[in-house]
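Structure request: Acetylornithine aminotransferase, Acinetobacter seifertii.
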Amino acid sequence: MEQPISVTRSNFNDWMVPVFAPANFIPVRGEGSRIWDQENKEYIDFAGGIAVNALGHAHPVAVNALTEQATKLWHVGNGYTNEPVLRLAKQLTENTFADKVFFCNSGAEANEAALKLARKVGLDSGVAGKSGIVAFNNAFHGRTLFTVSAGGQPKYSQDFAPLPNGINHVAFNDLEAAKAAINEQTCAVIVEPIQGEGGVIPADIEFLKGLRALCDEFGALLIFDEVQTGVGRTGSLYAYMNSGVTPDILTTAKALGGGFPVGAMLTTDKFAPHFSVGTHGTTYGGNPLASAVAGAVFEFINTPEVLEGVKHRHQYFLDALKTLNAEYQVFDEIRGQGLLIGCVLKAEYAGKAKDITTWAGEEGLLALIAGPNVVRFTPSLIIPEQDIDEGIARLKRALAKLAK
Ligand SMILES: *Cc1c(COP(=O)(O)O)cnc(C)c1O
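Returned structure:
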């Protein structure tokens, strides 16, 4: 076989559109919660590909599903359905509130579908102008034009005006503000049960209950963006299950494929028919390859052992982080659920989250930020305790640099 083309990190700057600023090393191989770079340096993975690699790297369940399906059928197009996608739809509907599923390839696409469905339901209601969307400051819903507009971080949308209109942003966890914004013209309210990118900020249960009541009162659809919180991340299959509040639409992606790109919009028999033949679509969504992997990952995660294991690891992680913080005093607050954990920097270290993840990389640890002041961890849902210990030891060395 020919040698593959030799590449280095500096080639990123040569050839890649510069929307990202990746770390100065290139991961080449992963196993469980460890990865190795081109120099064979080993890292503990507390980032999990941004809440994606729910089973870590190269888990046999995912690898077997992928390779088995790879020899059978990859893609047929939506003129035909396929067995893996129907099995995955059965799993998702049997284990959630939903009756129907639309498959796509990413979180943004799932939210795009959700917002479009809500607009269509609003139109079909016959109520004049029922197209308003209520969303929340600091939210993140993806990078398409509609989803950056629904997101509550103007830095992601303002350069792309004119934006889709009819979207009203109010303060997160402020039920009075939501009440003032929701009316007969509202077709949807979109909210993350835990704001992930925005800083790992959990929604109050009373806030979610209040949104549910307002949506019922005004005939608006309640959309839960569970792209980051879904598929076991919080220790429940979906985060809505922790709140007792059931949405009309739920979007899921990230962990759903365990690293293979797949997304889905879940809804009920009441709303699904508004997306009649031809109203929406996708080329790749629900292809057999992605569906087979997602089906295997979902089945593995949706067991009491794995979900209880996430809750156990949450406590284990928190105890370790608190011990670390008792020594270094860098975090004001450690928050989140399950294995979606955010550490909020003290005011004196404001803006230093990125530096911490850079130093963590030097020490052999992959970690994330969630805004400039929050260090975020979203590791594999089955990360071994000894890998948590080792990752915390490496984090300790990174924090020592900060404290200096
Ligand atoms: C990551 C994320 C998205 C976007 O998902 P992509 O797959 O990057 O399009 C949307 N919503 C939330 C809550 C996310 O965390």
